[in-house]
Amino acid sequence: MNQKILQMQPSASVTLMGKAKEMQKTNPAIISLAGGEPDFDTPAPITMAAMKSLLEGNTHYVVGPGILELREAIQKKMWEENGVVCDVNHILLTPGGKNAIYLAVNAVLNPEDEVIVLDPAWVSYEPIIQAAGGKCVKVKLDYKNQYRITKEKLEAAYTSKTKMLIINYPNNPTGRILHKDEADILEDFLLAHPDIYLLSDEIYEKIIYDDHKNISMASRESIRDRVITVNGFSKSVAMTGWRMGYMVSNKEVFQAAYKLYQHSLSCMSGFLQKGAVEAFGCLREMEEMRQIYQQRRDMFTGMLNRIKGVRCDLPEGAFYAWVYFDVKNMNSMEVCEYLLENAGVVGMPGNAYGEENICCMRFSFATATEDLRRAAENIKVAIEKIQ
Ligand SMILES: Cc1ncc(COP(=O)(O)O)c(C=O)c1O
Predict the structure, then answer these.
(1) CB-based burial label for 266 (10 Å; 0-12, 13-18, 19+)
(2) What is the distance between the alpha carbons of residues 113 and 165, in angstroms, rounded to a whole number?
(3) Average pLDDT for residues 269-278, to the nearest whole number?
(4) Within 306-351, where are the H helices?
(5) CB of 176 closer than 8 Å to CB of 317
(6) Which residues form the Aminotransferase class I/classII large domain (predicted)?
(7) How many Å apart are CA 335 and CA 333, to the nearest integer?
(8) CATH architecture label of 3-42+284-386
(9) In angstroms, what is the span from residue 98 Cα to ligand 1's centroid?
């Protein structure tokens, strides 16, 4: 057996989502806020276009990195919305953003190469790096400093083996977005180290609140060629089950990733790609979903912040509340189990994302408003019982 894979941790979010589904079978009152999945249906124009294409017999291999129509739509979006100039020939359609990250990491790394990941981080970066034979070097960002990126922390993690830095904004799990001063630090860091790539995971880009704006690092001219942008349709247009993502990079990374792609995936489904083209015309639907997430965010975090010993900063993007618990010195695993048993609420413990210093939980508010309200009420009762 492959030792690298045997040593990998299973995905904590997939495990807890599965556990919640099992528990709901016998206890329908259990509220799962563990998963990272929009509760909305995919907008009808997208589904209709895919169905039409399927009925027309678009069921054969689709040779190439993605249909031209879809890659052109992505190229246009990258320019108009992200300020990123990219070559349509270097856009690769992938089964989800996750696979784009997998391909990009494998394209760049040689065994023992190092990748810097900012902690707390999404659960899959480290296993993907390990599977590619690389080493994940974690930079612990500080809750008390609003998880801001600092030059000192980046420099302390850099070695001659560093080949990539992975960032993710809007962030899962913290809900932070990238601020301009941090983007400047990243740009300077890349300019100081011309041998590394920046992988920018922008999968939650469309879910940003208030007046905040997304910054795409590939829009920075000086480093554009070294930024690999990952994005997709799962979160922005509620298409998780379609498995549609993409990677935008320079020619070298594209060519290496596409070689691996040809031998592992062959191609993406043609009729699903036809559906995805329509996503770019669904701006109204996306905006409606975003507004609902924002209302839920305000309601849920407002209720949690009224509980003694519980604190949640307003997420700036994505659909996660990153909640600090100061309860009887419990750690996040203990709070997770306590809330499951006493509030019937499934959340993700912060330690699954590498936050070991303080007790945080991640709750997804991509969940029906009534369930969220009930979850917050249950958490209040359960926490006040032991305060
Ligand atoms: C930070 C982050 N990146 C990438 C992904 C992958 O998304 P998908 O493969 O569904 O497009 C997720 C999904 O949860 C995520 O949270």
Answers:
(1) exposed
(2) 11
(3) 98
(4) 332-342
(5) yes
(6) 30-379
(7) 5
(8) Alpha-Beta Complex (3.90)
(9) 5
Q: Give 216's pLDDT tier (boundaries 50, 70, 90).
A: very high
**Sheet containing strand 348-349, strands side by side:** 310-312, 320-325, 360-364, 348-349
The end-to-end CA distance of the chain, in Å, is 48
Q: How far apart are CA 162 and CA 141, in angstroms?
A: 18
Ligand 1 atom 7: the closest Cα is on which residue?
A: 97
Beta bridge partners of 211: none
Q: Whose CA is nearest to atom 14 of ligand 1?
A: 36
What CATH class does 45-281 carry?
alpha beta
User: If you average pLDDT over every residue of the chain, what do you get?
Assistant: 96
- Measured at the CA of 210, the angle between CA 208 and CA 215, to 5 degrees, comes to 45
Which of the two residues, 140 and 357, has the higher pLDDT score?
Answer: 140
Which atom of ligand 1 is least distant from the CA of 122? 1
Strand spans (E) along 132-244:
135-140, 162-168, 197-201, 227-232
Of the candidates 126, 322, 99, the residue with the CA atom closest to the CA atom of residue 231: 99
What is the rounded average pLDDT of the residues 343-371?
95
Sorted by where each begins, the domain ranges of the chain are 3-42+284-386, 45-281
CB 37 within 8 A of CB 366: yes
Note the pLDDT tens digit of each residue in 49-93: 999 999 999 999 998 999 999 999 999 999 999 999 999 999 999
Indicate if ligand 1 lies below 6 Å from the C-beta of 94: no
